[in-house]
Structures are given as structure tokens and as C-alpha cells.
Amino acid sequence: MPMKTFRIAVWVGVLILAGFLGAFTLNLTKSKDVVAEPPFGVPFTLVSQNGQPITEEALRGKPTALFFGFTHCPEVCPTTLFELNGWMEKVDPKGDKLQAYFVTVDPERDTPEIMNEYVSNVSKRITGISGAPDKIAEVVKGFRVYAKKVPVDEKDPNGDYTMDHTASVFLLDSAGRFSGTIAYGENPDTAVKKLENLVSKG
């Protein structure tokens, strides 16, 4: 075999081997990423609106819409809960493919009883969650939610207050992994499509 032909054959072999190793490494990396991707948030033990203990396991088994807010919220929270309930009715009319939870960021006022009365007036498909203030604070931080107490009157910091908080709905797949968000004021058709995609993803 001429030297030039031999060199070409060697280089072709090297390129083929490099391509094979690259593809193998890429697939292996992707597989590890999928397996290693953890559920969103942190473990928790809180209280549902029915007074029963509830843990992060409630966010497994079905795709989940998760929203953080408070019952004294003047606009964002009631609007989001009302719209989310309507979107769920469209996407999952039988109510067996999608679940939703509303976690208070104001546990000092939002007891399980208050959450039950508030959420039940809006939806039978969304479950309210409360708990001890320190436990709620851990969950808020662990789920990367912004929440801050803001006095209504700056001259009276210990008086009445409201809460600034993240207004997006978090979307989690059936394994509890982060799958996107629905922003406050999202186009209704877009929100419905996102929930449909979440359900189809499983």
C-alpha cells in the first residue's frame, strides 16, 4: 500500500473512532443528567387546608401546578387561583391527570382553617397548604420564592402588613422536577397550552 494511501486510511480510522467516542460520551452525559436531575425544591412537612400533614411526596405521581401567595392578597392571588382553576378544567376536566397546591407565604395569619375557607371558595381542585412560620420559611427559600413582609404604614412597622411575593405558578412534572412557569397575566391560551404540555409530558 502506498504511503499516502496508508496515511489517509489511518486518518479516516482516527476520525471514525473520535466520532464514535464523542457520541458515546454525549449520550452517557445526557443519561446521567436525566437520572441525576433532582426534584425541585426541598423536603417539607406542612399542613394541608384539611388539617392533615402534607409532605413533598404530594408533589409526586401527577404533574403539579404550585403557587405561593396569601389570603390577604388584594389581586394577584385570587386572580391566579380563579384562572388556574379554569385552565385545569379545560386541560383535565375529569381531574385525574393534574393537581395544584397553593402554599401560603403568610402563615401567621393563614391557618389551615383560613386556607380551607379561602381556597374552597375558589376551587375544589386546588389544595391550600400552611404550617409553622419557620417551616414555611424553609420551603419558600428552598423553592426559590421571593416573599417579604411589607408594613402598610411605614411609620408603624409592627402594624398591619401585606406581602410581596413571587407571582408565577411553578410547573412540576410527575417526578417533582421543574418544568417551567406560568407568569401572572399570562395569555390564557398560552397558559392552557403549557398545562397541556405538562400533562402530556407526565
From TrEMBL:
Belongs to the SCO1/2 family. The lineage of its organism: Bacteria, Pseudomonadati, Pseudomonadota, Alphaproteobacteria, Hyphomicrobiales. PROSITE patterns: THIOREDOXIN_2. It comes from Rhizobium johnstonii (strain DSM 114642 / LMG 32736 / 3841) (Rhizobium leguminosarum bv. viciae). Disulfide bonds join C73-C77. It comes from the Bacteria. One of its GO terms (molecular function) is metal ion binding. The keyword Thylakoid does not apply. Residues 35-200 form the Thioredoxin domain. Pfam families: SCO1-SenC (PF02630). Coiled coil: none annotated. This is Sco copper chaperone family protein. Cu cation binds at C73, C77, H165. The keyword Metal-binding applies. Keywords: Copper, Disulfide bond, Metal-binding.
